[in-house]
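Hi team,

Below is the intake form for BTB/POZ and MATH domain-containing protein 1 isoform X2 from Nelumbo nucifera. Please confirm the fields before the structure is written into the shared record.

FORM ID: S-0412
PROTEIN: BTB/POZ and MATH domain-containing protein 1 isoform X2
ORGANISM: Nelumbo nucifera
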Amino acid sequence: MSMGRICRGTSRDSSSSSPSLTTSTSTTETINGSHQFKITGYSLSKGLGIGKYIASDIFWVGGYAWAIYFYPDGKSIEDNAAYVSLFIALASEGTDVRALFEMTLLDQSGKERHKVHSHFGRTLESGPYTLKYRGSMWGYKRFFKRTALETSDYLKDDCLSVHCSVGVVGSHTEGPKFYLITVPTSNIGQHFGQLLESGKGTDVNFEVDGEIFAAHKLVLAARSPVFRAQLFGPMKDRNTECIKVQDMEAPVFKALLHFIYWDDLPDMQELTGLNSKGASTLMGQHMLAAADRYGLERLRLLCEAKLCEDVAINTVATTLALAEQHHCFQLKAVCLKFVALPENLKGTGMKPFLMAVMSTGGG
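The structure came back. Fields below:
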């Protein structure tokens, strides 16, 4: 009887194959934030009592609330009120919160000789400071000797200014990602814009310079506090079938609705039908006034940015007047800098204009 052969598998020996390798990375970093605490009436705070403090408003860094405590008579009885004390305290619930701190008493003479105690930018032998629970503090009982403080440049007009920074330490670990899902950008503006263009569900009409515009009350109220009051407030318009809008041109109101629904500026040249920079600038000026009228802060800033780009000899006077009227301080500063340039003052007639602006407080 013949013996059958035993066939062995041809798979490779696992010991000879390369082992699979996976990786992960742990990253430890800080989430930074700061707060400036101004202490006025310093002399009146003396005598508050040892161990009693003046607290700053609460500020948030790294998901935790913090506060600055200033002890005008010091924190420790043994110092007999000879020093002022300064601390940063954890003002919210937290356990073993690790953080870096920096305290700066600002020199108010302009010499920038600030008194700084900082964990940042240096190697720490024992690592970041750990706050165990709510109310835990880091700081100095003997931050500054009172007699020296009161004759220093840190105290001016009976006022001290303290700048504190907090860096909350956190760690996270990332492994290999086996997926990649592309998330599109938000298109909510497109949806609302298409709603306006379709005309479906409109429940309010506006008459502007003889032209009728249909819109949706809820959309207008959600976007503009002025429309909210006009349509839903105690003094709301009774007749919403057709609300008349005074002192505004139809293209400007159309552009205003475009922004409210689409959340961006329309094509000014397409809107006006004029292919010129001057027409675009003029529309931007009207839009700025409309934005201020209806409390649309983002639109106001978009118009400011656009008008900053378009400042020119023939537009700066009107733009500056609008900036002054509607409290657009950044745009006003750009206009004044433009007017003050030597090349714009020479031979352009701008010097008398600049002098007039300065004399009325425009500077």
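SUMMARY LINE: The two ends are 116 Å apart (CA to CA).

Thanks, M.
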